[in-house]
Write a structure and sequence with these properties.
By secondary structure, this protein is α+β, with helices and mostly antiparallel strands. 49% of the residues lie in helices and 18% in strands. It has a 3-stranded antiparallel sheet, with no helix packed on it. The chain has a two-stranded antiparallel sheet with strand order 4-5.
Amino acid sequence: MFYSPSQNSFYPSSLRSSYELSGMWPDDAVPVSKAAFEKYKGAPPAGMTRGADDGGYPAWVEIPPLSLEDLATRQRAAIAAALADALAAGMPYTMPDGTEDTVQMLAEDRQNLLGLAIEARDLKAAGVSDPVQEFRGLSNTRYPMTPDQVIALTDAALGHYKDLLQQSWDRKDAIDAALAAEDREGIEAVVW
């Protein structure tokens, strides 16, 4: 068995002539024992990866840290995923009848909430105060509501949405500030 540090790969001795005929045999291939092959062919220990030692033989080496830009990109993606999860979880809300339910907050739900809010304001302006509107919570329960109740619900949902966006923006700004300061620990510390 041979190992190439430039390719970080093992090459079976039995296939050397085929590799050489095709011009694919690495110039830096070194012979390794079966024990070395068995040790380094599998999964590395935590925090390590297979690489080469100074002699060109396989060795476990520490995984290099991400660049600051890559770390910041990873943290921004984690914040974006957390925002998406928070929106998918919805907003807990006590309905007018006292039932606890969840107001769904995905994009299509926010469009529905906007439509309900506009309708509620129009009804209120027309003097309607009866429970003529209907809201369906995450439980799929239908709640009859007055325009004022719909306005309260949609205003709370909008406030919840704005708070989540602000939290996301604040976290991303903190990542950008830590990146500008070249502060690895500061970038790593930013969580949802």
